[in-house]
Amino acid sequence: MAIAKAERLMNLALCLLGTRRPLSKRELRGSIEAYMEAGTDDSFNRMFERDKDDLRELGLVIETVENLEGETGYLARRDSNRLPPITLDAEEAAALGLAAKVWQQARLAGAASGALQKLRAAGMPEAEDAYDAQHSALEPRIPVHEAAFEPLMLACRDRRPVVFDYRKATAARPETRQVEPWTLECWRGHWYLAGWDRDRGAERVFRLSRITGKVRSRAGAFTAPVPDVVTVRETVESWAGETATRSARIRLRAGSGYPLRARAQSVREGADGWDELEIPYGHGLDAWLVEFGPDVVVIEPADLRADVVDRLRAVAKG
Question: pTM to 2 decimals?
């Protein structure tokens, strides 16, 4: 079945590329054997529409125009489907090879490797790969484990509003968010979405691991302008206390809270199963500490301790 469909798509593409005038459905049906074997007009129409959509998805530019008889016709102009010559030096080729490896864990892996093969077939230099896994203990990868990644990536690309259920770090239950998605960015091993929150009328950043259920697309255009530069990383850094102006002292249960330990300015191991850490204190640190639950106790400053306690009480109340 897969071979038959591939042959049918190839024949349709050749017909559309080889004609100088628009071809009607009737003419295409009489030119392609698989279409001639379709039992009814309805089955042919369904098959043709699927094939046309598949070819467009593969990148073929198909125009819909009226032919000389007034019928709707289709053609794929060669000048619209021809790419200019691509010239890359060895360093640019190496950068593309590295970029393709980054997506090995995502569904984009097939598209990335396929694009690389096409470029190499077109003459892209086979530069020596300094990042080859056989010669390096490090391999660049962007982990994509969240089911929300792909629908949000497509929504960002197509500028489509989305709806999803989102559970904040301080909330016991998720709530529905209506968002105009702008961009996705990976920071410290986690994916974040930046966009316009319609209900709050403001820019927001969402961590994909806190999205529950399916991401649903919505019809309609964006209601807010998309900024030229979206500072996802700066926003997340601010929430995580990266832009700290002072320090905080916390007690952390031994063997837990490794992200906190990685950012600690000092660590003093305790004999009671708890360690004392000094960490940077900036806006949003209270929300981050709440994620570690009973494994963290704030010693000082008092305002940070009070904020953490308030957030934990809010979670307990549901």
Answer: 0.46
